[in-house]
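Dissemination and training. As part of the outreach component of the grant, students in the summer workshop were shown how a complex can be specified as a set of sequence lines and then modelled as a single object. The example used during the hands-on session is reproduced here so that future cohorts can follow it. Participants entered these lines:
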Amino acid sequence: MTVLVAVRGWKPDHWIHALRAAAPERTVVLPGDAFDPASVRYALVWKPEPGYLKTLPKLEVIFSLGAGVDHLTSDPELPDLPVVRIVDPDLTGRMTEWVVLNVLMHHRRHAHYAAAQAAGRWQPLRQWAAGDVRVGIMGLGELGGDAARALLTLGFKVAGWSRTEKHVDGVAGFHGSDGLAPFLARTDILVSLLPLTAATENLIDRAVIDGLAKDGPLGGPVILNAGRGRSLVESDLLAALEDGRLKGASLDVFATEPLPPDSPLWRAPNLYITPHVAAESDPEALSRYVAGEIAAYEAGRPLGHLVDRARGY
Ligand code: NDP
Ligand code: OXD
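and obtained this result:
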């Protein structure tokens, strides 16, 4: 049974090797190889060429090699087949590391101390306790829920905002458009782990930035985005960093990736940039996950983590 691996922007060799190790009984092919398109039953993909998947007539299941699926839902010719996304402790743990790291960088005034060290200055600032700081996570799903639990363990006050009502122990829950304003008003550090959908595109704009708490201990609100770049209006974020309405920000995802060299974001004050590496998809861990899902599917068990095509995530 043939499994196709189509990863644009990633090196395919590592994936092929990992998948062959995880599923030695399968034939694994790349789009450029010589193979019969009708032999392919499963496709493991990251940003496949739009229109490509519809050329595989016997395809049964599409596996997104990331947690996000906007790289698939943006294909107007995406076949009407089950789309399974990644939900795996390896990926989740990596994202939680990024969130905790970046929350702490702002909370512990890393930019100030890095600049002081570079200038040879001994310049302590007042340090607030984690319990004085309110973190708000937009997107309280697999990733947001795990990050929330890690931040709670460190003592932060944590709230989450989701589309539907959610309960995570110790986390103040807000949902829907009515829940947004009160959620923002109690948030010092906003973390977006939202998927990109029609409803979340350009959601984090000037109004959202101005709705954040202004009375927190950090001297102004901070925004972290590791969901998708197009959920944030970058020009609004830039203006708020420049005029001081925002104290700081961390961005892992951007409207255009790679971030162009002439983007003003590179030079924005108090902004940490990482190149979409918050939670990389690890070939070994995720090949094992997909091989397990395919085996379960062939044994007649239901596929897990199916994408709701109407919802967009
Ligand atoms: P989930 O589907 O588990 O969670 C998504 C969350 O967002 C849910 O809580 C959902 O609400 C909420 N949500 C969706 N739409 C809205 C809306 N319109 N209003 C309010 N809340 C909304 O996804 P994951 O946690 O697994 O992943 C989240 C995203 O993280 C991915 O889609 C991807 O874009 C990004 N990502 C980025 C990576 C990186 O390296 N930078 C790596 C991996 C993922 P509800 O609970 O009600 O459904
Ligand atoms: C993902 C990503 O969606 O890496 O997994 O962005």
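The chain has a mean pLDDT of 97. Students were then asked to discuss how this feature might be tested experimentally.
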